[in-house]
Write a structure and sequence with these properties.
Layout (H helix, E strand, L loop, with lengths): L1 H6 L4 H18 L14 E4 L5 H11 L5 H5 L29 H20 L14 E5 L1 H5 L1 H13 L4 E7 L2 E2 L2 E2 L8 H8 L2 E6 L10 H13 L5 E6 L22 H10 L12 H7 L1 H23 L1 H11 L19 E2 L1 H12 L6 E5 L3 H4 L8 E2 L11 E2 L4 E3 L4 H14 L3 E7 L3 H14 L4 E5 L17 H6 L5 E3 L4 H12 L6 E4 L5 E2 L6 H5 L3 E4 L8 E5 L3 H14 L4 E5 L3 H5 L3 H7 L7 E4 L8 H4 L4 E3 L10 H7 L4 H14 L11
Parallel strand pairs: 1-2, 2-3, 3-7, 6-7, 9-12, 9-13, 10-11, 13-14, 14-16, 15-16, 19-20, 19-21, 21-22
Antiparallel strand pairs: 4-5, 8-17, 18-20
Helix pairs in contact: 2-3, 2-9, 5-7, 5-16, 7-16, 14-19, 16-17, 21-26
Length: 676
Amino acid sequence: MDAVEKAGSGHPGTAMSLAPAAYLLFQRTMRHDPTDPTWIGRDRFVLSCGHSSLTLYIQLYLSGYGLTLEDLERLRQWDSRTPGHPEHGHTAGVETTTGPLGQGLGNAVGMAMAARRERGLYDPDTAPGSSPFDHHIWCFVSDGDIEEGISHEVSALAGHQKLGNLTVVYDDNHISIEDDTLIAKSEDVLKRYEAYGWQTLSVDWTETGDYVEDVQALHAALEESRAETDRPTFIRLRTIIGWPAPNKQNTGKIHGSALGAEEVAATKRVLGMNPDKDFDVPAEVLQHAREVARRNHEGRAEWQKSYDAWREANPERAAELDRISAHRLPDGWTQALPQFEKGASMATRKASGEVLSSLAPILPELWGGSADLAESNNTTMKGEPSFIPEEYQTKEFPGNRYGRTLHFGIREHGMGAILNGIALHGGTRPYGGTFLVFSDYMRPAVRLAALMKLPVTYVWTHDSIGLGEDGPTHQPIEHLWALRAIPGLDVVRPGDANETAYAWKAILEHSDRPAALALTRQNLPVYEGTSAEGVARGGYILRDASDAQPQVILIATGSEVELAVNGRDLLEAQGIPTRVVSMPCVEWFHGQDSAYRQSVLPPSVKARVAVEAGVALGWREFVGEAGEVVSLEHFGASAPYKTLYEQFGLTAERVAAAAKASLAKLGHDKGETTGN
């Protein structure tokens, strides 16, 4: 109450009613070490209802994670360690950035999947519950999380995957910002989760008619959930929001705003506290709470014996774990990358699939799959088993609980949040695929991956009107620049098969940000002169002018590199020296020093054309005032892709004409003598 009152804004109600549950979890249930927030053997806690950030911050303070009382006093202030929603990497003990509702629940599912995959990599044969890699994922959710559609996607998949290492506690307080949730929600949430295949438990602190915070009942439920190893557990905890505030409890008014001085004072009186004291934590209270560090330190010592014994018995696996944990790639790994024959023809989606299969034996940490589009996305590593309970494997996809190929079903939004959870957990590196147009379904999770700087890779295929007959609903037009607008996301659109291999190389060499591969359905020529270094720099000279003194520069990405190369041939035949720049990643090009950027795009050459089968938008920066953009400023159509390119004017002839138009703006359009 004091923190929100001082900040003048915040969400006190849920933090008040969840305080006993959070304290119980951190003090008695969860395995953690406040002195080492990154301990590999720790349980994970996800506060999916991130608006109730005080639920987490107060436990981090009481447990001894380094937060101080002064940090709580600076809730939601500039440069504080207690921002309005928890931020991963900003505050010790915060496992993920939460706020957009439902995302944290998806992260928790991803963490539970990653924990099982990690165990399969490092200690698959140990009996259940006896491995140093066995740990639990705990997640608090609110009505908002449960109402968001993403909760269905990730919860259905968690039940199908039988994630017995996951427990979700649902704060069922019947209140949201618009007051009583009955105005918008009436389903039986427990039956919903039972239908998903979860163990469902209920703890009702209102069942006696009075409000009784029965912590023993909740503790029993938490322990029962941990004992269930073949199903995730969903615990409905019936609370009263804002209890025991005498006038505002159980109302929407206490959900997202300060109580006011009078209500705070009245509540303190109910609790037997001094209403004139703010942020009053008696020394004996803090000393009692900090005992959790000692208790868990003793538990960690036992874990350490088991872990040390594992390392001694498994030196090769231990070395692999150390390498992966340090985000190091194995020596010589690039030798496994395939080389594609110059002059051949191949879709970049197919080349990406070849890269993944080639890397499978070299990078065990790399795993992933598709939102039911594996054959189209080429995301299945050849010969690798699926990650699935054995009873659900199929003829097409045999597998086991420790498998490698992920099947998200038609759940793009959920896939995005789960990929983030896998990356946050550590120990492995995920990728996930769908069509580029459906990146819209993933965008909230992609934005959070960029915000958290997570090394998640998106394999987005069918990247333009080049997919052809499926028509405008499936043809991305605005997507490339909409995605490039997300700070910290690398959008990579390789121009041929070898650029695709080089793109994977560059992506895997980064461990501090997400990347998106935009790949073609249609075949593209494999060019001479593609460069691994050039791709890693984001843009490079693929074809220079015949005299190395270009009058015009053509800039292209992906499938339109072919148009630029062919357009250059037309211009060179007319005596116009022309350079082709392949720019697979704008973000990487921006990251180069000025000297390199000028060597590729000399400021003196102002006649420029950018060509991409999508909206022009950001290309204006590269072509300048005199430049032209060959783009697509409208939705597509259903027809064979070659027809679409021709009818929409995405041709080599159009590129050449645009180059001449740019030259004309600069006064290079000379007339001819026609006689008297």
